[in-house]
Amino acid sequence: MTFPKFWAQSDIDWSVKLDNSEKESRVVLSVKMVSQHQSKDSGSKKNEGKELKMVAPQDKSSKKMKFASSSAETEPTSQTTISDDSKTGRGMSTMPRAVKRKLQKLRPIVEYNKRGKGIGQAHSEMQSYIGVLARSRVPLVDKKWSEIPKDIKEQIWEAVDMAFVVGQGGKNSVLSSAAKKWKDFKSTLTRHYILPYTNDKEKLSQPPETYKFIEKAQWDAFVASRLSKDFESVHSQHAQIREKLEYNHQLSRKGYAGLEDELEETMPGVEIDRSTLWKRARQDKHGNIPDPKVAEKAKIIDELQKQVSEGKVSVYGSNDVLTMALGPEHPGRVRAVGSGISPRQYFNLPKPQRVSFDDRLKDSLRVLLQEETKKMEAKAREEALRMEARTKQLVEAEREHFLRRRKKNTAKNGKHQEDEEKEEEKKEEEKEEEKEKEDEEKHDDKVIEVGDYLNVEAPSSLKTLCRYVETTLMPEEKILQFTIDKEMFGRERDAFLLPEDITQFASMEEIGATVVAVYMRYLHDVLKKANMTSMVGFIDPATVSANSGTIADRSRLVAGRLQKTDGEQIFMMPYNPGLVSLTGFCFYDFQ
After folding, report:
1. Mind giving me the DSSP string for 100-134?
2. Among 551, 571, 574, residue whose Cα is nearest residue 561
3. Nearest residue to 115 (alpha-carbon basis) of 439, 359, 339
4. 261 and 219 within one domain
5. Of 101, 442, 550, 579, which residue is 20 to 30 A from 215 by alpha carbon distance?
6. Is residue 267 part of a domain?
7. Which domain does 514 fall in, by range?
8. Is the model's pTM score more than 0.85?
9. Are 145 and 115 in contact (CB under 8 A)?
10. Helix, coil or strand: residue 534
11. How far apart are CA 330 and CA 119, in angstroms?
């Protein structure tokens, strides 16, 4: 059996027990300590040898973690279990559970709350693992985190990423946590193992027994830096700042995010605000507040919360209960929510946004189309009202005519009455025939023959096209064929333009769906040159014409076209209410 390369390069004490049987060999590994001498990431993906099939570890926590496992090739004849050595006291954490799961290629999924702060057992274990890496991988030097080599930071990130599913953008938060834990580690060494023994050189001659992995040369240099006069001055300044803190919390490692997660489970349906978190963070395990100053502020918070619930006091924005009790917030931070959360994020303050040229152009086009649509809708409503009034007039005239006829029928009898009725009906029919004839003559006056388009005021290019139709297409009975790309209507198709379509268009006649489709294709080409096709979409006129099935069929076709978009386009489609012979456009904003 071959072990991965990094096992041979560490100071880990491996106790291997082989139990040969016919079908399986069981290996029991005991992890004692992670060494700082690992030259490469213990969770490197380039491990040599075959991966071992492992038994899943037992989770002792009441909360179950979610895992993401990778499909690694395993030996079916071998299983591996890793057992932790029993240890007394808190001691130094080595996170054997994380090592176990890395070998099994099981990665706990780190969960986050609504503000992007990590919560849950997986997050707690990840933070402990980051602490192990920060202590063992980063040299113990008197430098700032920014001066640490990038390859060391990259090793820490890769190790965490192989052990946990951190999520998008998690690298910065992991390295920030590593920086803080490295700084806290140096502070712990200074406060517990150096400053109390400034007069005992023998105690300071060797690294602490708990942290044997620290090299003696690094320890000696670190002790010398902490006993210098420069550090004494810095330490004194920080001690004075620390003394000014009035309201100390007792959150330990879980932080405000972990506390909020606990309260949401124990207090379901109750809104957890900052004031509740601030107060609970300063209680001991029995629910008491030992600090008198904090207890006084807690009473004020309770009273304000009661007044808010009764409607006597109103809260808005950053002026909430905690601000009323403790005073205004300091710029750039928010109390009782943890680090890394700005006032703008927590209180949902408006953020000034820079609008690009494309966005401004899109907004302008949307406003223009909305105004045009309103005009068309107003015109359609006006025409509908006019038709309604005309219909009422016709109904009233018919009613009066009926009453007159009834009156005459009552006054006259016999054959004379019948003759009069016939004569009157004949006159009515003659009047209707004359009216229809006049309408036809008026309509005929407006029709322009095929050869009369030269008399119409039109661009020279349109007249040239009409001459081509008259001299070439009509004599040879040809048609014009266009290919419409898939990106325009959602499907590729051919359009055929007849000579009559062109002459009707030139003569300002009512045009068909094919002419509208060709016009849309030209408009699409213009938008394509301007890189604006992502802003404007088109709906095929053939799918919404009266010949395309029922209204329900046309509605389904339009809905299907809109569903194939990204939701940011303005759509154009032919619109004809049936009252006018012009073709207009209305738009659909799928958003």
Report:
1. HHHHHTEEEBPEE-TTS-EEHHHHHHHHHHHHHHH
2. 571
3. 339
4. no
5. 101
6. yes
7. 458-589
8. no
9. no
10. coil
11. 26
Give yes or no for a contact between 329 and 284, defined as CB atoms under 8 angstroms apart.
no
Note the pLDDT of residue 69.
58
C-alpha atoms less than 13 angstroms from C-alpha of 91 in its C-beta half-sphere: 12
Top mean pLDDT of 61-65, 333-337, 500-504 is at: 333-337
Mean pLDDT for the chain? 72
Where are the alpha helices (H) located in 491-575, listed in sequence order?
499-506, 513-529, 541-544, 551-563
Range of 58-62, 170-174, 327-331 with top mean pLDDT: 170-174
Question: Angle of helix 170-189 relative to helix 150-163, nearest 10 degrees?
Answer: 110
Task: Count up the domains in the chain and report the number.
Answer: 3
Whether residue 367 is contained in a domain is answered as: no
Helix (H, G, I), strand (E, B) or coil at 392: helix
Same domain, 220 and 287: no
Cβ neighbors of 118 (< 8 A, separation 6 or more) are 110, 111, 112, 126, 127, 173, 257
For the chain, the helix, strand and coil percentages under 3-state DSSP, each to the nearest 5:
55, 10, 35
Q: How far apart are the first and last CA of the chain?
A: 60
Minimum mean pLDDT among 28-37, 205-214, 334-343: which range? Answer: 28-37
Are 489 and 570 in a shared domain?
yes
Q: Mark whether 279 and 183 lie in a shared domain.
A: no
Residue 209 — φ and ψ, nearest 5°? -60, -30
Asked if pLDDT for residue 231 goes beyond 70, the answer is yes
Per-residue pLDDT tens digits for 251-277: 877 788 788 888 888 888 777 888 888
Please give the Cα distance from 281 to 270 (Å, whole number). Answer: 17
44 and 181 fall within a common domain: yes
| Torsion angles phi and psi, residue 76, rounded to 5 | -65, -15
Do both 59 and 200 map to the same domain?
yes
DSSP result, 375-390:
HHHHHHHHHHHHHHHH
| 25, 150: one domain | yes
Residue that terminates a domain, selected from 243, 278, 305: 243
Pick the closest to residue 503 from 446, 448, 459 (CA basis). Answer: 448
* Whole-angstrom distance, CA of residue 369 vs CA of residue 132: 61
- β-strand partners of 481: 496
Say if residues 323 and 329 touch (Cβ distance below 8 Å): yes
